[in-house]
Design brief:
Chain lengths: 435, 299
């Protein structure tokens, strides 16, 4: 039997809230960065890819780094929601919606940024009409569409019981949002048959999303690993990418947990216990990713094959060394040392560690993509000096930052219209705990 | 604040004159200078041609000029010495082959000059450029083992004399570009005009007979221009076309996808999307269950 007062309190706490002054400022800043990115993209469309610093050798730059980063972050939906739900872990309930929102937002922008990388985006349809099934690029297109659809369903099904609560709270949510809620879930009555179908569907989704999530990032890694180049010619790439994706996704959830907890005063729902448990998961994932990194770099460095030497030395001691060691230290080693201690798993240190992981992960993707392209097996000769190096142009920075801001804006938008913590599940769990 | 008013007539005249000057300038825009450069190329002591580039300064930067008409002469600007009458392409470049008719003139002297003349048009001033080269030849040969050598000589006092201190590159011709034949970027000729380099590309695929084309070249030399010598050598591995576009392969065309890949890809795709379609149907079922519930409640 549900206690109506407790339920009302939980509902009042977890209903979507209007933006505070800081929320409005945050949104305005993101809109401005997005608009600037859109202007830069307009210039790129008008003048062509020549406005970027990508040339004959560095044909992939920060757009593709950003793409890999977004795909990686999107995997968090399968980790937090699917893996933990199937393992019957209940403490993660308040984090599931955050993870699903991040997953949907990230996969949308992963799709957009790959179109931005195309010199002739109007020819995108040709990829589907005339694409070769032998190409991993086609596999990536298919698997991204599939993963987006599954993530959307995984956001939608658990939302149905909350929609009923949101529709009932019309006075607090406003008429316009109420229309949206009614469109999405006015048919949800919460009867036994609906609950049974919904629970079974969520279970099927959780089972389906795990192999698809593994596919999406494995296929993304194959975009690189199926080509014969120093740094990409690796059988380790699929597992290496997936472990990195889980780490950056978990880091992003930690950051989001802290921000939403502060912004919406959710201290009673996202507690120190959640940070502690997520901290343990992050340590495990960081160690796993570090292990794959050691495999990825130490073994080729031990052999130091001549054609790969320039690439590896460029990373270890050359022009990419500062970024490489930053990504390894800040993105993995320092967070491990911080979070392995209980004090480090408190909210603020967790937030700092989460930020370090996310920033480190972005640079790691840059290191995966660009240095390899600048160290081909055949030497670069008789080319303009500008072809030998790559540093993104301002248009590339603006578009990349615009896409990152766009993803954050989408997360902010979802947080404005949806309960960031599942209301009905929280009520049910609190009553189960009380009884 | 009276004094500006005292100068008002003068100010008005200055402004009017400036406007008038500006308008007249707008009506007759100033012609630009055309910068023409001529590069000399001798390919394997067989074909000689001149590469002419036309550029002009726009906003402080040199830009290629398309459609510039330029006549190029060998030594003298007379009809008998005309080497080419060319129009530059969008990259501002045009080529003129030194024809066999000019062979006697070419052989008559150790140094030659090339005169490029543009008569000018509405956009550009007329221009005249002269550049000179010393007759030289580059020869390539192979030595013991997989070594190669090249000799650079210039025509001096009626005979070929070795040239010391000039950089020579040694390459292998590949599809779409050249590959360095050795570790060093370039070798400098000794007092005999010779360079020797080790061939470092063993096992490189050649043609169906295993032939590779070695190239020695002097690039953009102030005295001799661009010289290139070529030599086919049987140092490559015998290249075999190991595939056919008619086979079903991973590198084949779209309609030649391997059957196993088609089977696997479509099996996975349809299995996953069948589950997703099933889940969409579950939403419809949930909807119906909700409506039925409402119907029963109303009853």
């Amino acid at each position: 039997m549900e206690d109506p007062i407790v339920s009302q309190n939980i509902t009042a706490d977890l209903l979507p809230q209007r933006f505070s002054r800081w929320g409005k400022r945050w949104t305005a800043i993101l809109v401005v960065i997005c608009a600037f990115g859109a202007y830069a993209y307009f210039l790129q469309l008008k003048n062509g890819l020549v406005v970027t610093s990508m040339r004959d050798y560095a044909t992939w730059g920060i757009y593709i780094s950003n793409f890999v980063f977004f795909v990686a972050i999107s995997l968090v939906g399968s980790l937090i929601t699917a893996v933990l739900r199937l393992a019957d872990v209940h403490w993660s309930t308040p984090l599931t919606r955050i993870a699903e929102i991040i997953a949907v937002s990230a996969i949308i922008f992963a799709s957009l940024i790959i179109v931005v990388d195309m010199g002739r985006p109007e020819r995108f349809l040709n990829l589907l009409l005339h694409g070769r099934l032998q190409s991993p690029i086609i596999w990536d297109v298919v698997v991204i569409c599939t993963y987006f659809f599954i993530s959307l369903l995984l956001l939608y099904f658990p939302l149905l019981p909350d929609l009923k609560i949101l529709i009932a709270a019309k006075e607090k949510t406003g008429a316009r949002l109420n229309k949206l809620y009614r469109f999405l879930g006015s048919f949800w009555k919460g009867n036994a048959q609906q609950v049974r179908i919904s629970d079974r569907s969520i279970n099927i989704l959780c089972i389906t999303i795990i192999p698809v999530a593994f596919c999406i990032h494995t296929v993304t890694s194959w975009l690189f690993a199926t080509t014969y180049r120093p740094g990409w010619d690796s059988t380790n790439f699929g597992a290496y990418f997936i472990s990195g994706a889980f780490l950056v996704g978990a880091g992003a959830v930690v950051v989001a947990m802290y921000v939403f907890r502060k912004a919406y005063h959710l201290e009673n729902y996202i507690t120190a216990l959640h940070f502690d448990k997520m901290g343990r998961i992050v340590v495990m994932l960081a160690m796993l990713y570090l292990y794959f990194n050691i495999n990825e770099y130490l073994i080729p460095a031990f052999k130091m094959k001549k054609p790969e030497e320039a690439h590896l030395m460029g990373l270890f001691t050359g022009q990419f060394a500062p970024v490489f060691w930053f990504a390894i230290l800040v993105g993995m080693i320092v967070p491990i040392f911080m979070l392995v201690f209980k004090k480090g798993r408190r909210p603020l240190p967790m937030f700092i560690a989460g930020m370090m992981i996310v920033v480190g992960a972005w640079f790691k993707r840059y290191l995966i993509v660009t240095p390899t392209l600048l160290h081909p097996f055949l030497p670069m000769r008789d080319v303009p000096a500008g072809y030998l190096h790559y540093f993104p142009s301002w248009q590339e920075w603006a578009i990349a930052m615009g896409s990152l801001s766009g993803a954050l804006l989408l997360i902010t938008f979802f947080a404005r219209i949806l309960p960031i913590i599942p209301i009905q599940e929280t009520i049910t769990e609190r009553h189960e705990m009380a009884s | 604040m009276k004094w500006p008013l005292n100068y008002l007539p003068e100010l008005a005249i200055i402004i009017l004159l400036s406007l008038a000057g500006g308008r007249s300038r707008a009506q007759t825009p100033a012609k630009k200078d055309l910068l023409v450069t001529v590069g000399f190329y001798d390919i394997d002591n067989r074909a000689m041609y001149l590469s002419v580039h036309a550029r002009t300064k726009v906003d402080g930067r040199f830009q290629p000029v398309k459609g510039a008409r330029i006549r190029v002469y060998l030594d003298k600007d007379s009809a008998a010495c005309l080497t080419g009458d060319l129009v530059t392409d969008p990259a501002g470049e045009g080529r003129a082959i030194i024809s066999p008719e000019l062979k006697d003139r070419w052989n008559s002297s150790a140094t030659h000059s090339f005169i490029a003349i543009s008569d000018g048009d509405t956009a550009f001033n007329a221009s005249r450029t002269e550049s000179s080269v010393t007759r030289a030849r580059l020869q390539i040969d192979t030595g013991e083992g997989h070594t190669l050598s090249a000799v650079l000589q210039e025509w001096k006092n009626g005979q070929w004399m070795p040239v010391k201190g000039v950089d020579v590159k040694v390459d292998i011709r590949r599809s779409g570009g050249n590959l360095a034949a050795s570790d060093k970027e370039a070798y400098t000729t000794d007092s005999a005009g010779k360079i020797t380099a080790d061939f470092k590309r063993d096992g490189l695929p050649g043609d169906e007979k295993g032939l590779l084309t070695l190239i020695a070249k002097v690039e953009d030399n102030d005295l001799y221009g661009n010289l290139q010598a070529e030599l086919p050598v049987p140092w490559g591995s015998i290249g075999k076309a190991g595939f056919s576009i008619d086979n079903r392969t991973l590198w084949g065309i779209r309609s030649r996808t391997p059957i196993w890949l088609l089977f696997m890809a479509y099996s996975i795709f349809f299995s996953v999307w069948a589950v997703l379609v099933y889940l969409i149907l579950q939403i419809v079922r949930i909807k119906r269950a909700g409506h039925a519930d409402g119907y029963h409640a109303r009853l």
